[in-house]
Amino acid sequence: MLTQINGLHHVTSLASGAQSNSDFFTKTLGLRRVKKTVNFDAPEVYHLYYGDEMGTPGSVMTYFPFPGARRGRPGAGEVSITTFAVPKGSLPFWADRLATFDVKNIKAETRFGENRLRFDGPDGDGFALVEVEDERTPWEGQGVSAEHAIRGFHSADMRLRDAGASAELLRFMGYEKIDTEGDITRFRVPAGNGADVVDIETLPGAAPAQQGAGSVHHLAFSVTDRKAQLEVRKALLDTGWQVTPVIDRDYFWAIYFRTPGGVLFEVATNEPGFDRDEDSANLGQALKLPRQHEHLRDVLESRYLEKIRD
After folding, report:
1. Per-run averaged pLDDT (10 residues), the chain, 310 residues
2. Which residues pair with residue 188 across a beta bridge?
3. Do residues 223 and 271 make contact, with C-beta atoms less than 8 angstroms apart?
4. Residue 93 has what pLDDT?
5. Could you state, in order of their start, the residue ranges of all structural domains in the chain?
6. Is 223 left (phi over 0), alpha (psi -120 to 50) or beta?
7. What is the CATH number of domain 7-304?
């Protein structure tokens, strides 16, 4: 069993537009845009990162906004809900705020004794806020004070036809089964980073998900450094998983592998962080390009990348 994984690092999804995406996460949810860069494999598309003040691992939602992309179709084999932690007693504030911003499908619920608020993102993305005790320091902005602000991720839901092999994988990754409620089973990594829960929803008859705008592209898990990442990679390879080589993503190093249920997992380092190429006071303002794409700056800014209004 692995001991290096601390919980979630980031969640990366697809969107249909950069401006609406930026507005939702910064103006509606009150997160900070901590990086404005591009997709390494498709540099004509932004890669936008949102989180707390420094983009602490466990707080970062990231997006590839493909202009005009068709919406995904929810189903089995995907991350269906991304859940953020908020302070206890703050859900009435969020219910009012989300309604003010005309957020769709707001619904109060409980799960494993925790009060939650479900809602949709601008592309039908599945989100929730859950009230928990959480000492992480939030980013304050856009009228969201510390008493209500998002602390970071709490959990991610995977919707699968059969949970068996994926549950076994999570246990190998250091997660422990906590409880089952209906068709949802909860796993938590002990002494994690706060973003340390994964819920598996088992729906044997669900149709396969079809990826598109609003779909999660991959779920990333946190390790402290490159040494820990190499240990995880070797253990996965030794167990028979097909894992990519280590890839430099500028702000972290990453490895990827596909899970039995179809969800793409990443293991990402906490180093070097989002302040490696701009000072902390100005994170997410300037367009930062990977070295291999710097020569494309003029054409990207003039032809492909829409101007994002803050």
Report:
1. 98 98 98 98 97 98 97 98 98 98 98 98 98 97 96 98 98 98 98 97 97 98 98 98 98 98 98 97 97 97 94
2. 176, 197
3. no
4. 98
5. 7-304
6. beta
7. 3.10.180.10
* Token pair of 253 as six digits: 């190093």
Structure-token pair, residue 217: 């592209």
For 211, residues 6+ apart whose C-beta sits below 8 A from its C-beta are 14, 72, 78, 217
pLDDT in tens, 6-40: 999 999 999 999 999 999 999 999 999 999 999 99
Query: Which residue type sits at 240?
Result: G
DSSP 73: B
Name which of 159, 100, 98, 175 is nearest 129 in CA terms: 98
Distance CA(45)–CA(146), nearest Å, equals: 33
Please report, to the nearest 10 degrees, the dihedral formed by the alpha carbons of residues 125, 282, 224, 2 taken in order: 0
String of DSSP letters for 139-164: P-BTTB-TTT---EEEEEEEEES--H
Q: Which of 195, 221, 247 is nearest to 4 (CA)?
A: 221
The pair of structure tokens assigned to 256 is 């990827």
Q: Which of these, 199, 171, 174, lies nearest to 185 by C-alpha position? A: 199
Q: Is 46 exposed, middle or buried (0-12, 13-18, 19+ CB in 10 A)?
A: buried
Q: What pTM does this model have?
A: 0.98
